[in-house]
Amino acid sequence: MIGFGVAAIALPIFSTLVAETWIALILISAGSAKLFYAFQTRDQGGFVWKLLLSILYIGAGIMLFTQPLQGILTLTLLLGSFLLTEGVFELILAFRLRPQQNWTSVLVNGIITLFLGAIIWFQWPSNAPWLLGTAIGASIISTGVSRVLLSLNGSAATVSSNPNSSDQVTSA
Asked: pTM of the predicted model, to two decimals?
C-alpha cells in the first residue's frame, strides 16, 4: 500500500487521471443501479425522480469519462469548495464547543481545512493536474503506515498476552 502511495505521488498527473476515471466509473455504476431500482420499484411512487437521479449519475459519469481533463478541473474545484465549506463549519463548531476541554483541536482542524481549501481555490486551475493524485497518494501512504503500525501493535499484543508461547512451541 505504501508503495502505491509513493507511486501516486511520483506520478501525480497519471494518478489524478486514474482517480478521475475511477470516479466516472463509480458514477456510471451507481447510476445504472439507480436506474435498475427505479424500474424495479416504479409502482411504489417517485419513479420520475428516481429516473432523473439515475440519469444525472450516468450523465455526470459519462461526461467525466469522455472529457477527463475538464473532469479533473471540475473535481479539483469541487474539492476546494468542499474543504472551504468544511473549514467554515468546523470553525463554527469549534466556537460552539468553546466551553469544553480540547475545543481548540476542532479550531485548529477548521483553520487547516479552510487554509487547504483556499490554497486549492487560489491556485486553481494550475494545480488541477497534480493535486488530486498527490492528495490520494498521501492518503494511501498514511493508510499504509497506519495499517503497518496496527499490525505491529497486534503482534506485540499477541506475544505479550501469551508469555509462555515459546514453552508451548518447544514442548510440542
From this structure: 0.70
Amino acid at 32: S
Q: What is the CA radius of gyration of the chain?
A: 23
More confidently predicted of 101 and 26: 26
CA–CA separation, 64 vs 29, rounded Å? 13
C-alpha span between 57 and 38 (Å, rounded): 13
Q: Give the mean pLDDT of 86-110.
A: 88
Cα-Cα-Cα-Cα dihedral sign, residues 162, 163, 169, 172: negative
The amino acid at 30: A
Condensed to tens digits (0 to 9), the pLDDT of residues 121-135 reads 999 888 888 888 888
Alpha-carbon gap, residue 165 to 171, rounded angstroms: 10
Helix spans in the chain (H): 2-10, 12-40, 47-66, 68-96, 103-123, 128-161, 165-171
CA distance 83 to 111: 10
Taking the alpha carbons of 152, 156, 161, 163 in that order, is the dihedral positive or negative? positive
Q: Which residue has the cell 481549501?
A: 117
